[in-house]
């Protein structure tokens, strides 16, 4: 217990993390305390390469005033630093990287739905299941600056924290959230690096995001300013949702937040997502995302002076009302502005019952559109004023139907000169020296460079051989990416004729996959060059050798899936004997294919009920001798058998609370030929079934 100001000796302190998050090896409590850790390291786990096993909290700061924590490193815990009920807390120049993060089950080919996160509730600290570098609750007037959180899941997570100043931090390359806020008001979030906070993405295959974000603002968080931050390459760049309170009552929201001068580009989903609230989105860079702004149910919202480019849809608002879209620049988007509503949408929540959610009252003026494939796509919307917009690089393409009423459309074309109204620009003055948080010109940019590993986004701090493609002849093309330096092949398995055998970064490596049906490739390489920081935070000095691998393991499955239905008399939990008779009887239908999730997905709900449904799937495998991680993600219950021996089960729906609960895995030895059988049963209509088998590498 630290109750007085102190300077800590610079050394590594190892304390094994415990199951309790409210206790910690270092506890600080009191008023007017400064603790300078002088670069000391507090380490909670020496098993660096299994961060999903990290437990406990490194430092707990209890109720007090004017407590300063600075110059420390905390790693190997579920939560690096936790503070509760502290007024005027300062956390300065700390490094809380390499704390807890989930092992991701999604692959480059297949999304695993159990990887989805949900931050919709935190009244009971539900967010703590995701861990955090810094976790604050009831901490008003906090000053958090100069800190780093990378290679974790969540950076800074705040609840009931008001009037804070969060600036000059680097919360990048995490698998969940950069900065998260819940019931937080009047905070200034400035000059932060929040790039590559992402999961649920595979370039050219799927773009889901799985509720990851650079900045996440939930549940009655209002009057905050977010300025001059970079949150690129994140699931959402900026993700705002009014909160469950508003959904149930129709009151409140996350309102009157100013989002100014940020870069939210290259989001797999939305550069900015703002829903059920009233906000200002001004002077931001919003490039190459699914949506530049997704503004469902936004009202009295200003979207002005932003730079939209290369999005599938620049602005998309359903059921929006009284919104202003002015002085923006649009270029090379597939759709410019999309407005719509669904008049038949059931009013099944309090918000829809209490609020007027018609799509109406838009001012769209003084924008410029260049090379837009379709500028306006509007339906079921009334009272729209479109005026003084410049259109260049093509003709004015628009989709309007008879449901659009009371639209004024004038002075829009290639001869227009948009006017500039400076009143949209806020007068922001802060007495801080802000860093340039924007990406360096030398940093690779674009969604191609969202490269997801088993633990999160690739951080460019270590060498990697990244598969670009495999052609129809089995030739594999690898991009050699990493710090400046040289690489050479040390050992190779499962790939022939590699070319070249050595090279420099960046570079290419090409090889021919062996002709066997099983893909079991392992290329061991050595790197020498600039400093390396491994994905688990281990530092290698410039010139020191660093070993890395390219590995690919794929089994040629031939899944046979039988489909059944059950009722109250054959309930799998209440009447297991009758249930077993059903699954050993005649199936309702049969499906088959090489990828279990696709076999299930293509068959789910097709000529069979979506509820009270059962599948039994079998496939033969032939694998080399070794240890394997076998995993199953299923809704809602599943059992996995190897040669009729039960090795894994998740058969209690009462324990399925969060998305991650739908996944289970086990380590087991295998050799040669085996039969895999999976029994899956569900009561509800949410369908998910994914099977994973991977070698355990030492």
TrEMBL record:
<dbReference type="InterPro" id="IPR012334">
    <property type="entry name" value="Pectin_lyas_fold"/>
</dbReference>
<dbReference type="InterPro" id="IPR006626">
    <property type="entry name" value="PbH1"/>
</dbReference>
<dbReference type="InterPro" id="IPR022441">
    <property type="entry name" value="Para_beta_helix_rpt-2"/>
</dbReference>
<dbReference type="Pfam" id="PF13229">
    <property type="entry name" value="Beta_helix"/>
</dbReference>
<dbReference type="InterPro" id="IPR039448">
    <property type="entry name" value="Beta_helix"/>
</dbReference>
<protein>
    <submittedName>
        <fullName>Parallel beta-helix repeat protein</fullName>
    </submittedName>
</protein>
<dbReference type="InterPro" id="IPR011050">
    <property type="entry name" value="Pectin_lyase_fold/virulence"/>
</dbReference>
<feature type="domain" description="Right handed beta helix">
    <location>
        <begin position="254"/>
        <end position="340"/>
    </location>
</feature>
<feature type="domain" description="Right handed beta helix">
    <location>
        <begin position="57"/>
        <end position="229"/>
    </location>
</feature>
């Amino acid at each position: 217990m630290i109750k007085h100001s102190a300077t800590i000796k610079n050394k590594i302190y190892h304390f094994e993390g415990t199951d309790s998050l409210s206790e910690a090896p270092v506890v600080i409590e009191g008023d007017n305390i400064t603790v300078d850790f002088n670069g000391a390291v507090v380490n909670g786990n020496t098993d660096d390469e299994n961060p999903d096993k990290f437990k406990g909290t490194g430092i707990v700061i209890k109720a007090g005033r004017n407590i300063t924590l600075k110059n420390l490193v905390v790693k190997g815990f579920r939560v690096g630093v936790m503070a509760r009920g502290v007024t005027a807390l300062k956390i300065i120049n700390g490094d809380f990287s390499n704390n807890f993060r989930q092992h991701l089950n999604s692959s480059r080919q297949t999304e695993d739905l159990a990887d989805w996160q949900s931050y919709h509730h935190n009244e009971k600290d539900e967010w703590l299941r995701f861990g955090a570098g810094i976790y604050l609750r009831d901490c008003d007037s906090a000053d958090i600056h100069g800190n780093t959180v990378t290679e974790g899941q969540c950076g800074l997570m705040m609840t009931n924290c008001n009037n804070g100043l969060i600036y000059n931090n680097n919360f990048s390359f995490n698998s969940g959230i950069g900065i998260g806020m819940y019931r937080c008001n009047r905070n200034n979030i400035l000059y932060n690096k929040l790039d590559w906070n992402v999961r649920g993405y595979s370039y050219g295959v799927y773009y889901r995001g799985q509720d990851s974000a650079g900045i996440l603002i939930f549940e009655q968080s209002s009057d905050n300013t977010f300025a001059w931050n970079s949150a690129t390459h994140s699931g959402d760049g900026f993700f705002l949702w009014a909160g469950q309170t508003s959904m149930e009552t129709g009151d409140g929201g996350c309102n009157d937040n100013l989002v100014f001068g940020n870069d939210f580009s290259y989001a797999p989903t939305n550069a900015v997502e703002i829903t059920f609230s009233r906000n200002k989105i001004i002077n931001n860079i919003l490039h190459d995302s699914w949506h530049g702004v997704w503004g469902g149910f936004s009202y009295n919202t200003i979207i002005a002076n932003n730079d939209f480019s290369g999005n599938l849809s620049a602005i998309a608002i359903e059921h929006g009302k009284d919104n202003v879209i002015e002085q923006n620049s649009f270029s090379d988007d597939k759709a410019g502005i999309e407005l719509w509503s669904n008049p038949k949408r059931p009013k099944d929540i309090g918000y829809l019952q209490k609020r007027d959610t018609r799509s109406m009252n838009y001012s769209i003026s003084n924008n410029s559109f260049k090379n837009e494939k379709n500028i306006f796509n509007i339906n079921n919307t009334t009272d729209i004023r479109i005026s003084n917009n410049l259109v260049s690089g093509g003709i004015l393409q628009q989709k309007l139907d008879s449901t659009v009423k009371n639209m004024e459309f004038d002075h829009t074309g290639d001869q227009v000169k948009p006017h500039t109204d400076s009143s949209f620009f806020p007068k922001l003055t802060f007495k801080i020296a802000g860093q340039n948080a924007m990406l360096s010109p030398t940093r690779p940019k674009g969604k191609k460079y969202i490269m997801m590993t088993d633990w999160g986004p690739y951080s460019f701090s270590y060498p990697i051989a990244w598969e670009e493609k495999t052609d129809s002849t089995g030739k594999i093309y690898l991009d050699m990416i990493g710090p400046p330096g040289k690489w050479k092949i040390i050992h190779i398995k499962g790939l022939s004729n590699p070319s070249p055998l050595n090279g420099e970064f960046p570079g290419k490596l090409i090889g021919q996959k062996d002709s066997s049906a099983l893909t079991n490739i392992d290329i061991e390489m050595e790197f020498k060059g600039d400093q390396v920081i491994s994905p688990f935070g281990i530092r290698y000095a410039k010139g020191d050798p660093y070993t890395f691998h390219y590995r690919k393991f794929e089994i040629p499955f031939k899944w046979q899936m039988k489909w059944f239905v059950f009722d109250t008399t054959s309930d799998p939990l209440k009447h297991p004997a009758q249930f077993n008779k059903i699954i050993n009887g005649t199936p309702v239908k049969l499906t088959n294919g090489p990828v279990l999730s696709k076999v299930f997905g293509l068959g789910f709900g097709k000529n069979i009920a979506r509820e009270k449904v059962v599948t039994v799937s079998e496939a033969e495998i032939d694998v080399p001798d070794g240890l394997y991680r076998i995993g199953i993600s299923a809704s809602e219950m599943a059992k996995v058998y190897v040669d009729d021996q039960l090795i894994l089960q998740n058969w209690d729906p009462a324990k399925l609370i969060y998305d991650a609960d739908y996944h289970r895995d086990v380590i087991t030895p295998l050799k040669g030929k085996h039969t895999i059988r999976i029994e899956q049963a569900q009561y509800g209509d949410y369908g998910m079934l994914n099977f994973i088998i991977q070698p355990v590498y030492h």
